[in-house]
Design goal:
The complex is a heterotrimer of chains A (519), B (488) and C (240). With 519 residues, chain A is mainly α. Chain A has 15 helices and four strands. Chain A has one domain. Chain B has a domain of 327 residues. In chain B, 66% of the residues lie in helices and 2% in strands. The chains are: A mainly alpha (519), B mainly alpha (488), C alpha/beta (240).
Chain lengths: 519, 488, 240
């Protein structure tokens, strides 16, 4: 019985103007957006590949261990075409250095902050706006419309239970709405495959599948809301007005308003506070280093040059200064590492605070299935804050790996190779020349100029001859995205909530329809 | 005749569910917007005054020596505006302070410093944007948001069945059985709906203004009231587009359900989709400059300066400190100024290149009345990207003014070499700028000036014109359609 | 067989729509329920179809209580509603097929559809027409066709001749006669006294919820049914 009603309803739905328009618009928009979004992604991917290659090339120019300060990049996420999330706003790179800390916002790593005024464009926009409104349009007159037509009486004059009618309509509504959603996904994926450089390895496929099912669950929740209004009102025009008002509140007011409200109820600590904390820590660190190294020389005769990653290294320096530099680094570098960890903690706290505030905003907004859906899609696409957090943690881990590597190669930063490529014995060669070049003693300026030139030449020679370090055994940064299982763990509660919303509204419709006056 | 139609239209709407809902929605949104704005303004005001006073006290400390005044890096903050009530203009995404001394405008983005020092590595990044990292792109709930998104939607709900609904009910036939011109019916309906919509809009705005003015913090001057009035008129102009659109589509179909579908589609397209295209268009049309590019250009410029110096453009031994016979103060000053100029140019180009995609993206999306309305309101209210650009220009003018002041005061000091440049060692060793103290009161201080209403309107003239054009087009379309409408 | 037993319905706002109404409609009988608007005729049908519950009393179709076992009762009844649009985008055949399926009729062939269309006087090619192109009379006939396909022992009709032109109304009456011959129990609500006189076996007159009179065919065959009706209404006034 349910099946018969569903079949009739489904056929009727397919013949309506609203379905035709909605389905066509959905598919056409996806088809139009996809190429644009994918070429944007391609551009980012090319950019990323170039940067990684350049970084690798720089690594081969490194002459001292101190200069190993590569930049690691976060690869652009192919799934961001489905849900852009925070992709364009958060940092896409981080510098690996001993004492440094990675920046957070994209503005500081090269994005254009001015463009944030434009709203995000992704496939999810089509789904959450066009499809959700189609869902409401299909559902609003499903009961009240039949009542107005008089056919509801006809149906219920037969041996048909009310719940059978409702279930049949639910099935039909979902079947109707599955068509445009599926078509949009298929068209989108086809276009995606068509572009070169785009590959969807195994894990991504699972994510896309889950995204698809989540979209269906979301659309079904919008349908259930429309269905509820249809079961509450006797006139279709009223249930339409209600449905549309609720839609605009869910789609436009709540997502924006909740963040606005959350900002007001629980404002996050200003960035400045975190900046101030970091600055204080830096000061503390510098003081500590100063205390430990004040007895050491901080200057002497030396000649240096700029090497890979813009880092400085010593070509030659006199023996006393050299010894002190070795001692200095052996003492200061571990301190820098320690403080870098503390600064990282501070930043993580700040990000956690932001996350909490976002959580509050989400909690307020969870009333709207749209926000739930947005958050879930963003998490699955790897473009939400959690995924970014994952990246930061990986960067930290990699930083530790690199530090360990350097530590092992330079005997805890005390070896010469940490800051100079010149061997012990070669430094002696410079001593005489340098003494004559820079001694402010009795030698007159002409001779001093001569020795200076000779010294410069010697330095240039040395620079050319010095080989780069062989860093083949340096572990490279592997950019991995968060595992699917972990994402699932993070989002399981939201998925459950979305399912619950479905069940909740359907139950309400059920109860309402049992009491519905069909005359 | 028309009056009868207007009365009936208003009365029928007042008793309907959609009116009640729109009234509730409008009032609650405007009230919420009011409260949040007051709180935000208080906070921003506090921050602004704290920062500005810090800046001024720093400046007053520097007045012990004129050269310190010259080298002092002032920071000018963006003042919170009461008219941001109407439209925030996305200012939260723009840098909110500009740093400069009289010689150069420091970049408003990140500066990366190289590791010069062997012994210490600095925490080397500075961000010109103080404030929070907003994690999600969201819109501020200001007037423009409520009106352009919510009220336009509500308008469609009021007008989707204005013609075809009456046809379905049979009352259109009855009306036309009376001796009345069709166009009178149309005009009557239009006025009726506009008046009906005016009620929630008006009440909402009143409530909002009440909340805002009752807080003592926010001052709204006479000029501001005029601007508010202008924005209210703009809002009516904008909503009128949707009324006419609704009437047009309503008079093209026989079933109100179909009319609703078409109108929803058009609304989604105009209000949600077209503005989103802005990003894609701007990304595709012009490349945003990256930080790496900035670094490269700065390096180029530095190299050029080095070459110039090597080729003797600045005389012998510029920028060398040692014995008196090798030093070349004028050459050093020239070198320094050339370098500063060149760097400034690079930074300014970079900033302009960052802004260009935004302007371009917006221009292309002007097909949407929503974008037109947004731009026009921003221009009138004096917020948004135009304000940022104007602020930048004003700071540059102030910079020149301050430089003239320094030059003037410097000329009074006979001991100084009168060579204005940003070289701190040249100043301390050679005294290229006077070291005499100056009175804090005589030092020009920065004041941001708002544009007058007339000038703001000039900025917005194209947008307002296009909004009016939309109105005309849809009115004509509705007119023609209804004249041919089959009323049976 | 249709049976009402002391059926009473009082609405929430206090209106007494039915006041202890009792009568039976036997198989092979056409019972016309006459009365003004608001007299309780439609309420009767609504209770029989379990659209609303009675306040007290009971209604039976073929021995099954309509409100305690509605699904069982509705197996034996067909309903022809007043002025129903049916499914505009479906063809006549699709409409018929759907309602037949709901009625539990399986394996209906083209012949069955053609037969029923012929029976109600609609051309067979109308099977392929969409309902939105049907005229009012055609829709009415299709309504009856739907009822016929189910072929139940009892039929309820609500104002079936309202708005029909004389020819269509006459054809409709022929249909009713055929149904009567097949032994159906037919309950018709109407205020078309003219047609009621022509077709009814018994007439029930309702006023303000009460069944004030039942007249058999013999009583009104040669009399002016309208006069009887008016008389009964006034008498009821005097009594109340």
């Amino acid at each position: 019985m349910i099946w018969k009603i569903a079949k009739k309803e489904f056929l009727l739905n397919l013949m309506t103007f609203k379905f035709a328009v909605g389905a066509v618009v959905c598919v056409v928009l996806t088809a139009v957006f996809m190429p644009v979004l994918v070429s944007d992604y391609q551009r980012s991917l090319k950019d990323y590949n170039d940067k990684v290659a350049r970084n690798e090339a720089e690594l081969w120019k490194v002459k001292v261990y101190m200069n190993i300060t590569p930049t690691v990049y976060r690869p652009p996420n192919v799934l961001s075409v489905f849900s852009e999330g925070l992709e364009k706003q958060l940092g896409q790179s981080a510098k690996i250095e001993l004492g440094g800390v990675s920046e957070i916002s994209a503005a500081s790593t090269g994005g254009n902050p001015f463009l944030s005024i434009f709203p995000t464009l992704d496939v999810m926009l089509v789904l959450k706006v066009v499809m959700s409104i189609l869902a409401v349009l299909v559902a609003y007159d499903t009961i009240s419309g039949e009542r107005e037509q008089g056919t509801l009486k006809l149906i219920l004059s037969g041996a048909v239970a009310r719940y059978q009618v409702l279930l049949g309509k639910l099935l039909a509504g979902l079947a109707t709405l599955i068509i445009p959603v599926t078509s949009a996904f298929i068209v989108g994926l086809l276009i995606l495959q068509y572009f070169p450089m785009v590959s969807l390895p195994g894990v991504d496929s699972i994510r896309i599948v889950l995204m698809y099912f989540l979209s269906l669950i979301f659309i079904s929740s919008m349908y259930n809301i429309g269905l509820l209004f249809s079961c509450l009102m006797r006139k279709s025009s009223i249930s339409l007005v209600l449905g549309l008002f609720v839609w605009v509140v869910f789609v436009v007011v709540i997502p924006n308003g909740s963040i606005y409200l959350a900002n007001y109820l629980r404002p996050t600590e200003a960035r400045e506070k975190m900046d101030a904390q970091v600055k204080a820590l830096v000061q503390e660190r510098d003081n500590e280093i100063y205390d430990l190294t004040k007895t050491l020389r901080d200057g002497g005769n030396y000649s240096g040059a700029y090497g890979a990653f813009g880092g400085f290294f010593v070509l030659y320096c006199d023996e006393l200064y050299r010894r002190d530099l070795q001692r200095r680094y052996a003492r200061s570098e571990p301190i820098k590492i320690k403080y870098a960890d503390r600064i990282f903690e501070v930043q993580q706290q700040y990000l956690a605070g932001l996350n909490k505030q976002k959580y509050l905003a989400s909690a307020i907004a969870q009333v709207s299935p749209i926000t739930l859906y947005e958050n879930l899609m963003s998490a699955l696409a790897g473009t939400d804050l959690g995924s970014y957090d994952h990246f930061r943690n990986r960067v930290k881990k990699h930083t530790n790996v690199v530090i360990e590597y350097i530590r092992s190669k330079t005997e805890n930063f005390s070896s010469l190779s940490y800051f100079t490529p010149t061997k012990e014995e070669d430094h002696l060669e410079f001593v005489e020349t340098a003494r004559r070049a820079y001694d402010r003693g009795s030698i007159d300026s002409a001779e001093r100029t001569f020795w200076r030139e000779k010294f410069d030449e010697l330095c240039k020679e040395k620079l050319k001859q010095t080989p780069s370090l062989n860093l083949q055994d340096l572990p490279r940064f592997t950019s991995g995205h968060e595992s699917f299982v972990r994402t699932l763990q993070r989002t399981i509660s939201h998925i459950t909530l979305l399912l619950f919303i479905n069940a909740f509204f359907f139950t309400l419709s059920f109860v309402a329809f049992l009491k519905y006056d069909i005359r | 005749m028309i009056r009868q139609i207007i009365y009936r239209e208003i009365l029928e709407n007042l008793l309907s569910l959609r009116f009640t809902l729109s009234l509730l929605l409008s009032i609650s949104l405007f009230a919420a917007a009011g409260f949040v704005f007051v709180a935000k303004y208080k906070q921003e005001s506090q921050d602004y005054w704290k920062n500005t006073n810090e800046n001024l006290s720093g400046l007053s400390e520097q007045t012990k020596r004129l050269c310190d005044v010259a080298l002092y890096e002032q920071t000018v903050y963006r003042k919170p505006k009461s008219l941001a009530l109407c439209t925030e203009g996305f200012e939260k995404y723009f840098p909110n302070c500009l740093r400069f001394d009289i010689f150069s405008m420091h970049d408003t983005e990140v500066r990366r410093q190289r590791n010069f020092d062997l012994v210490r590595s600095m925490y080397s990044t500075e961000v010109g944007s103080r404030g929070n990292l907003d994690l999600v792109c969201f819109s501020d709930i200001d007037w423009v948001f409520i009106i352009s998104l919510i009220l336009s939607f509500v308008t469609l709900i009021f007008t989707y069945d204005t013609i075809c609904g009456e046809k379905e009910a049979g009352t259109l036939r009855l009306m036309l059985a009376a001796s009345i011109h069709r166009h009178k019916i149309l005009i009557g309906k239009y006025i009726g709906v506009m008046l009906t919509l005016g009620i929630p809009l008006f009440l909402g705005l009143m409530l909002n203004l009440l909340i805002v003015t009752s807080s003592k913090e926010i001052m709204i001057g006479a000029g501001d009231w005029l601007k508010i009035l202008t924005i209210v008129q703009l809002s009516f102009l904008y909503l009128s587009i949707f009324v006419l659109l609704g009437m047009f589509v309503s008079s093209r179909t026989a079933h109100s359900a179909n009319s609703m579908v078409i109108l929803l589609l058009v609304w989604v397209g105009l209000v949600i989709l077209i503005p989103s295209f802005g990003r894609i268009i701007s990304d595709a049309a012009c490349e945003s400059p990256t930080e790496a590019e900035l670094g490269r250009r700065l390096d180029e410029v530095s190299k050029q300066i080095d070459e110039d110096r090597a080729s003797g453009k600045f005389g012998l031994n510029p920028d060398v400190f040692g014995s008196k016979n090798v030093e070349n103060p004028p050459g050093t000053a020239q070198l320094m100024n050339a370098s500063t100029e060149a760097h400034n140019q690079v930074y300014e180009d970079h900033l302009n290149k960052l802004i260009a995609p935004l302007i371009l993206g917006r221009s292309f999306t002007r097909f949407s009345p929503t974008v037109l309305y947004q731009c026009a309101s921003e221009a009138v209210a004096g917020t948004g990207i135009n304000r940022f650009k104007s602020l930048y220009q004003q700071v540059k003018r102030y910079q020149a003014e301050l430089k003239e002041y320094v030059r003037g005061k410097d000329a009074e000091d006979l001991e100084s070499l009168h060579l204005l440049c940003a070289h701190s060692q040249a100043i301390s060793d050679w005294g290229v700028i006077s070291k005499k103290p100056v009175s804090f009161d005589t030092v020009p201080k920065f004041q941001e000036r708002d544009l007058a209403l007339g000038q703001s309107l000039k900025l917005a003239i194209w947008d307002i014109g296009l909004l009016a054009l939309f109105n005309l087009v849809f009115f004509a379309a509705a007119f023609v359609s209804f004249l041919k409408y089959d009323v049976r | 067989m249709i049976e009402l037993n002391e059926l009473t319905k009082r609405y929430e706002d206090g209106i007494l729509a039915l006041d202890h109404v009792s009568y039976k409609v036997e198989p092979g009988e056409i019972f016309c329920l006459l009365g003004a608007n608001g007299a309780g005729k439609t309420t009767t049908i609504n209770i029989l179809l379990d659209f609303i519950p009675p306040t007290s009393g009971s209604a039976f179709i073929n021995g099954h209580d309509c409100n305690r076992f509605p699904l069982k009762a509705k197996k034996y009844v067909s309903y022809v509603s007043e002025n129903v649009q049916l499914y505009g985008m479906f063809t006549a055949r699709q409409n018929l097929a759907f309602f037949a399926e709901l009625a539990g009729k399986k394996g209906l062939k083209k012949k069955d559809y053609d037969d029923v269309m012929r029976t109600v006087g609609l051309p067979e090619r109308a099977l392929k027409m969409r309902l939105k192109h049907f005229s009012k009379g055609m829709r009415q006939k299709l309504g009856i066709a739907i009822a016929l396909l189910k072929d139940p022992p009892a039929i309820l009709m609500d104002e079936p001749t309202s708005g029909l032109d004389p020819t269509s109304a006459q054809e409709f009456l022929d249909q009713l006669r055929k149904l009567r011959e097949r032994g159906k129990a037919i309950l018709i609500t109407t205020h078309d006294i003219f047609r009621a006189k022509m077709i009814a076996d018994r007439v029930g007159i309702m006023k303000q919820g009460r069944l004030v009179a039942i007249r058999k065919r013999e009583d009104f065959k040669h009399a002016d049914l309208e006069a009887i009706y008016m008389h009964e209404m006034e008498a009821a006034e005097a009594v109340s």
